[in-house]
Amino acid sequence: MKIVLTYRMKHNWEVENFLTEHQKLLQRAVNEVWENATWKEKEVKHRYFIGNGEYNYYETTRLIPYFPKSNGFKRELRNKLLKDWPFAKHYVDSAIKTAYSILESWRRNYLKGRRKRKRPLVKRKFVRVKTTLMKVEGSGIRITIKPREKYLELDFSGEWFYERIKDWKVGELIIRESDVLLTFSKEIEFNGRIKIGIDSNLMSLDVYHPEKGWVKVDLSELHRIAETYDGIIDGLKSIQRKATKRITRLLKKYYARRRNRIEDFLDKLAVQLSREFPDAVFVFEDLNKSNMMKNSSKRFNRRLSSSTWSKIVQKLSYRVPVEFVNPAGTSSTCPRCGSKLKSRNGLVECPNCSFRADRQFVGAFNVWMRGLGAALSGDEVDDLLPGEPGGELRLMNPKSVVRVDLMGRAFTQILPENSRRTDPADGII
Ligand SMILES: [Zn+2]
Questions:
Q1: Ligand 1 centroid vs 342 CA: distance in angstroms?
Q2: Dist. CA 359–CA 157, nearest whole Å
Q3: Mind listing the pLDDT tens digit for each residue in 400-417?
């Protein structure tokens, strides 16, 4: 599996003109392809949910765009764009590619009804630099802007992320107005298994999977079970003196029931987690080194003791490979710049680079990072490279929220309020 990390580095190059010209070039490419699109009428089926697993169907006619893709068209487009392009020719090829991907993404959104039939505008100033336009020597990169005339040079050996990626392969980079996004890739041998990071929290297990993203496993049911029995047990204890023998027997029964119900929950959690991520190595924080339990309140310790957490790990370890990493700093280290994060309004925020995120996400991501053998501090990642500029780590919601299904065989997915869909088939993952 190939892991790609993106890091940001400031520059003080004079690139304003280059970026502006490129923005125009890209817009021209978008315009040309747009103007040559063929629009075909198509009947589109829609359905809406009317309850009881039934749907109403209706059809509408829509105009569907087809963009010209022939080599002939592309060659002509290339020649046209090259006419007054003063920089290296390769940028035209990459602009054409970018134009197509902008239009394809517009098309997908248009088909879903999220965009109007309006030509996309290139708002951001950036240039993608393919490796063909770069010369890499050690930690130095020389970028060709105009052959034999203008080059840009950078050296990333002084950057904080250097130790992490020094033996990695330098990939495409993106030049922006005041910084440059560098990508580094490495083939990582997993023996068929991907590593995933798990952050254990009070109300959830948060999983970071390099392909599936952030998955939140809701544990509120586990707390509900514990609380229910605690309530009964408290009630019994308060009258224990009155009828000692009978109450003691009842107490014993409810203690056992509480234990069994929790055990049952944990069994199902382990089964469902191992099914959800069958090819994964589960990376956990080493809880023996963790001060999570010391920090947690007495109330929590009573509701779910630390042994509950080790049990989750123990039960999983019968089914899937489990690894441990040092938990120090995993939920307080900025994954973008390596600084110490501060808590703010229920989120964590970086005072240095103003990165904001959910603490659970950061925890899972950093555990995953450490699982790869990377150091957390003095370093950092922008992301597992989503292929577009600005595709850095940012404030996000879990890709999915799942709950342990106490009856069935798979996680039940809980849809976030704002994206609640009507299709019941979406309810199961
Ligand atoms: Zn930061």
A1: 10
A2: 30
A3: 777 777 665 667 766 654
d(CA 341, CA 359): 9
Beta-carbon contacts of residue 361 (< 8 Å; ≥ 6 apart):
206, 208, 214, 396, 398
pLDDT at 23: 95
pLDDT in tens, 300-310: 445 566 677 77
- What is the pTM for the complete model shown? 0.56
Give residue 383 CA to ligand 1 midpoint distance, Å.
13
Summarised one tens digit per residue, pLDDT across range 261-282 is 999 999 999 988 988 888 899 9
Q: What is the pLDDT of residue 379?
A: 30
Mean pLDDT calculated for residue range 125-134: 91
Domain limits, the chain: 2-50+60-187, 194-427
In angstroms, what is the span from residue 356 Cα to ligand 1's centroid? 8
